[in-house]
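Thought: the user wants the 3D structure for the chain below. I'll pass the sequence to the structure tool as-is, report back what it returns, then summarize two notable features.
Action: structure_tool
Action Input:
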Amino acid sequence: MKRLAFAVPGDLATPTGGYAYDRRMISELGRLGWQIDVIGLGEGFPLPTDTTRAAAQASLFDIPKGRTVAIDGLALGALPEAFRERRMVLPQPDNLPRSGICLRPRCSR
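Observation:
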């Protein structure tokens, strides 16, 4: 079974289009046979408190090496160190699959 860590800022149940997109991605990947580990990154993104940011970074570093990670773009811009350290890459046709995927690419501040 394929396995994916799906990192989400805030509450996945939030009734917005972006979170609906994340929920749909998780659901559809599950239907395709993926095991999805949802990783909650905390509240306040894209501008989290230092405490939330540190906790989110720790959660990302706890994901086993080699596991594919999808991270919502709302969080990625606030966590560039985790992105670099985990050697995540943004999907491109010539380099999929790799170790990370950015969803909703609002990845820079």
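Final Answer: Structure generated. Residues 89-100, 104-109 have pLDDT under 50 and may be disordered. The beta strands are 3-8, 35-40, 68-72, 100-103.
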